[in-house]
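sanity check this fold:
=====
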Amino acid sequence: CFALAEHTFGAGKGKKHMIGLIIGSGIGAGIIINNQLYRGASGGAGEFGHIVIPHDQGFEEFEELVAGKYLEQEYNLITERPTKLKDFYMLNDKASHFLRKQLHTNAGLLLAIMINSYNPEMIVLGGGVSNLPFYDELHKETKKHAMPSLYAHCKIVKNKLGDDSGKLGAVALAFQKA
């Protein structure tokens, strides 16, 4: 519903090919292809958070590397100080620097995979992580891994609809089915 709302009413309005990516306590995405919500063969398209990549000594899902809940838990484990993502992101200690770098690298890699796989005109970010001041670093990391010609044609932006996007997307979905 987030992707559909941003495509119909928000940041992605007028874009024919778009991905809406929510990075919050988890990761969820919606893919718009030719102005239509792409659902996949069984309705499960957009599960980017469950893509597994090599990490440290094993493998991790993107959701475990990029989602706000994961980053908060990691900061707590490292420092033994429970802190919310928006708060630790502004701190100036080794743990916060390490986790910010990890977020930038892994989120950039995730966006590059989306760009290289779907060639969208735009990726609209939502969820708590989208409110962080990380867009400059995110662009740098995404550019490192995305095909240059595809990256050049894709804007990465923050959502315009905020918390109302789910409701508006549900309305748009109802009209699509009518």
